[in-house]
Amino acid sequence: MRIFFITFISIIFFLAEANSHTAHYKNFKNIKMEIFRNDKLIGNNDYYFNQKNKLLMVKNIINFKLDFMGATVFSLSGEGEETHLNEKLISYVSKTKQNNKQKFVNLKFNKETKKFDIKGSSYTGESSSEYIVGNWWSHSILKASAQISPISGSIKEQIIQLVEKEEIELYGEKISTLHLKLRSKDQNLPEDKRLNFDIWYNEKNGMILKVSYSKMGNWEYRLKSYELN
User: Fold this and answer.
1) Are 74 and 66 within 8 A, CB to CB?
2) CA-to-CA distance for 133 and 141, rounded, in angstroms?
3) Contact criterion met (CB below 8 Å) for 88 and 21
4) pTM attached to this predicted model
5) d(CA 138, CA 144)
6) Which residue of 78, 120, 190, 193 could cross-link 105, Cys pair, CB 3.0 to 4.6 Å?
7) Domains plus CATH for the chain?
8) 156 in helix, strand or coil?
9) What 3-state DSSP class applies to 190?
10) What is the distance between the alpha carbons of residues 57 and 194, in angstroms, rounded to a whole number?
11) Cα(214)–Cα(37) distance, rounded to whole angstroms?
């Protein structure tokens, strides 16, 4: 399969029909995704939207559990909340339990430096305010030059590639999509630390429909449903 490289600027051409930032989601009530491993349903990743005047709050709830021979070998549960003011992220907080480890992020926009101040379980410091929290509810992740881990606060630069226009079947419905590849810019990172996702994006409604990656099996996040106010 031939893959065409797209720079950070030219990827915007393929997403031109999508509204920028959070304006696209102002009428959303929720987005619900199911998590599969090796085609078996193991959990959910849901997003709930609350619009108050110029503020948009997005609550993220994720839960999944991987069992093997009656024992839990991997589990993750957590909650996070993004707060956007005038379509700009001003804060993000999360608490996540990954197996028996507690992870967290506390991010705030610094009005003086115009950067994000981050305190996380994997990173503490500043970052560009152009970076985006790496959640799947927003197509803005496909335009960002780097993403901030919603679990630990670590930062990874990324590149986007267009694989092809592709028709997929999701929950019995055939949908025309853009199949994209999201990878770490730094390929010298340890393999288990690199970003390496396949993403199927619906140009018509600006939604990420499916995300897949391989790590201890084949994982997929599938858009199950969304609800408007």
Assistant:
1) yes
2) 8
3) yes
4) 0.89
5) 11
6) 120
7) 4-228 (2.50.20)
8) strand
9) coil
10) 29
11) 9
